[in-house]
Design brief:
- The structure holds 2 protein chains of 2 kinds.
- By secondary structure, chain A is an all-beta fold.
- Helix content of chain A is 0%, strand content 53%.
- In chain A, the strands form 2 sheets. In chain A, strands 2, 4, 5, 6, 9, 10 and 11 form a 7-stranded mixed sheet that branches. In chain A, strands 1-3-8-7 form a 4-stranded antiparallel sheet, with no helix packed on it.
- In chain A, strand 5 and strand 6 form a beta hairpin.
- In chain B, the strands form 3 sheets. In chain B, strands 2, 5, 6, 10, 11 and 12 form a 6-stranded mixed sheet that branches. In chain B, strands 3-9-8-7 form a 4-stranded antiparallel sheet, with no helix packed on it. In chain B, strands 1-4 form a two-stranded antiparallel sheet.
- In chain B, a hairpin with a 4-residue loop joins strand 8 and strand 9.
- Chain B is globular, with a radius of gyration of 14 Å.
- Classes of the chains: A mainly beta, B mainly beta.
- At the A-B interface, strand 4, strand 5, strand 9 and strand 10 of A face strand 5, strand 6, strand 10 and strand 11 of B.
Chain lengths: 114, 115
């Protein structure tokens, strides 16, 4: 069974540009989560999507946005990139039938903003 | 607000020995979940073990076990018979059993298993 897959794995963008990161959840999982892992800041919760709806949002500015498609895949969009947006962006998925609300992560997308 | 604290930024252990990683958390909730995740150099976050707060029995997964002390808000991870492949960052995380599905993370402990 395929795990959570993310693309691209690495990318470099210029300050002010926009970026889209993509995520496919584990088959059968309806919830997708996005986390930011920046150096020195640990992991921070960004977004939770379930059944196509945004269910919860972390403390990030509106230029961080996303969506979930009918096939449960998801995109994270970041507009007006800033240097401090450089980080590993982790996508994760879960399903209501998984005990303990356990979530499973992908390998991440490394974003460098220059 | 909930917080998770891992007081050991770095630890090392000899292969085949046992090591314990510490984690404390702060919450006013009674029902929640606790997790240990492992992040090797490949950067993929891998679930090691999970504990439901309403269960008094400590969770175990092969060589990995936890010591869950709810009153003390402590959730330590014990790795027995350490292997070189256990070298990684270990993160403790908390999730409220409510419906916000938000994991709160500690800053991690870097574990090195030495041959």
């Amino acid at each position: 069974e395929a795990g959570v897959t993310q693309s691209p794995t690495h990318l470099i963008k210029t300050r002010g540009q926009q970026v889209t990161l993509r995520c496919s959840p584990i088959s059968g999982h309806t919830s997708v989560y996005w986390y930011q892992q920046a150096l020195g800041l640990g992991l921070q919760f960004l977004l939770w999507y379930d059944e196509g709806e945004e269910r919860n949002r972390g403390n990030f500015p509106p230029r961080f946005s996303g969506r979930q498609f009918p096939n449960y895949s998801s995109e994270l969009n970041v507009n007006a990139l800033e240097l401090e947006d450089s980080a590993l962006y982790l996508c994760a998925s879960s399903s209501d039938w998984v005990p303990g609300n356990t979530i499973y992560f992908g390998e991440g997308s490394w974003l460098t903003v220059v | 607000a909930q917080t998770v604290t891992q007081s050991q930024p770095e630890m090392s252990v000899q292969e085949a020995e046992t090591v314990t990683l510490s984690c404390t958390y702060d919450t006013s909730e009674n029902n929640y979940y606790l997790f240990w995740y492992k992040q090797p150099p490949s950067r993929q976050m891998i679930l090691v073990i999970r504990q439901e707060a309403y269960k008094q029995q400590n969770a175990t997964e092969n060589r990995f076990s936890v010591n869950f002390q709810k009153a003390a808000k402590s959730f330590s991870l014990k790795i027995s018979d350490s292997q070189l492949g256990d070298t990684a960052m270990y993160f403790c995380a908390f999730m409220n059993a409510g419906n916000n599905r938000k994991l709160i993370w500690g800053l991690g402990t870097s574990l090195a298993v030495n041959p």
